[in-house]
UniProtKB/TrEMBL annotation:
Keywords: Metal-binding, Methyltransferase, S-adenosyl-L-methionine, Transferase, Zinc. GO terms for molecular function: metal ion binding; methyltransferase activity. One of its GO terms (biological process) is methylation. Zn(2+) binds at residues 12, 15, 28, 32. S-adenosyl-L-methionine binds at residues 74, 102-103, 193. PANTHER family: 23S RRNA (GUANINE(745)-N(1))-METHYLTRANSFERASE (PTHR42912:SF45), METHYLTRANSFERASE (PTHR42912). InterPro entries: Methyltranfer_dom, Methyltransf_Superfamily, RlmA_N, rRNA_m1G-MeTrfase_A_prd, SAM-dependent_MTases_sf. The lineage of its organism: Bacteria, Pseudomonadati, Pseudomonadota, Gammaproteobacteria, Alteromonadales. This is rRNA (Guanine-N(1)-)-methyltransferase. It holds the Pfam family Methyltransf_31. It comes from the Bacteria. It comes from Shewanella amazonensis (strain ATCC BAA-1098 / SB2B). Residues 10-53 form the 23S rRNA (guanine(745)-N(1))-methyltransferase N-terminal domain.
Length: 279
């Protein structure tokens, strides 16, 4: 099987009608128009639905995450996600990476499937325009759109598989997106995740709550923890790692310099849940 150049399918975020392609972007029957950026992504986050002028990760945060992820430091997580997708009973024809950021995991999943000659219609959604500008430029075979993970521009029951790595979402929207018999794969922080960073901030750091997220309308297929110790010596990589954590703002410039000035070891702990949408 060869990769197909399939036209992406979107709904208008304002009236929920189907969007059709035109010269410069997409338009719905009501005349709502959405431009396609030169990089290839479409912006389906109307001004009236934004909570800030430029929501999501900024360019600096995106570049830090890109540097860190491309070092291979989280590759074990990406590999395990790929293994779980390849182990599904039926290869998914439509996949959404919800909260895809700059597209690292989306592209890695595409590569894993391509090696098995599997070419799904693959979408990446994020609220950050800076992240998707980089993603669409690098990975033109993936359909990227700027949109809210709480109000996605897709028809109900459109996806065979939704992958959500850390992204915020609401259960009702996840259930709406996944076809009956389709799957939802989520990754969240396990109890010990980033504990060494917490020890630098809090007098009494707490473990993350470890729970198997049970979403209405889904049944648990598997739940597992993936853990390893991250060892870093490169100061630039240490600072990039810190920037992509939710704790970066708690560090003063002096504390950042101190952290990056010596080898740093940190716990990584991921909870990976695979669920199936019941019929």
């Amino acid at each position: 099987m060869v990769a197909q150049n399939i036209q992406p399918i979107y709904l208008c975020p304002l009236c929920k009608a189907s969007l059709q392609s035109e010269t410069t972007g997409l338009v719905c029957p009501a005349g709502h128009r959405f431009d396609k950026a030169k990089e290839g992504y479409v912006n389906l986050l109307p001004v009236q639905k934004k909570k800030s002028k430029d929501p999501g990760d900024n360019k600096e945060m995106m570049q830090a995450r890109r540097l860190f992820l491309e070092s291979g430091s989280y590759q074990a997580l990406s590999d395990r996600v790929g293994e779980l997708v390849l182990g599904l009973p039926v290869s998914p024809a439509t996949i959404l990476d919800l909260g895809c950021g700059e597209g690292y995991y989306t592209h890695r999943l595409q590569q894993v499937l391509a090696k098995e000659d599997i070419w799904p219609q693959l979408y990446g959604l994020d609220i950050s325009r800076a992240a998707l500008k980089a993603a669409a430029k690098r990975y033109p075979q993936i359909h990227f759109c700027v949109a809210s993970s709480f109000d996605t521009p897709f028809a109900s029951e459109f996806f065979d598989l939704v992958v959500r790595i850390y992204a915020p979402s609401k259960p009702e929207e996840l259930k709406r997106l996944v076809k009956p018999g389709g799957h939802l794969l989520t990754v969240s922080a396990g109890p010990m995740h980033h504990f060494a960073v917490k020890q630098r901030i809090y007098d009494t750091p707490r473990l993350h709550e470890d729970s198997v997220e049970q979403i209405d309308g889904f049944e648990i297929v598997s739940s597992e923890r993936l853990q390893w110790q991250l060892e870093m010596e490169n100061p630039e990589l240490i600072l990039a790692f810190l920037e992509m954590t939710p704790y970066a703002w708690k560090f003063t410039p002096e504390a950042r310099t101190q952290l990056a000035g010596e080898p740093f070891s940190c716990e990584l702990d991921f909870r990976i849940n695979l669920q199936r949408r019941v019929l």
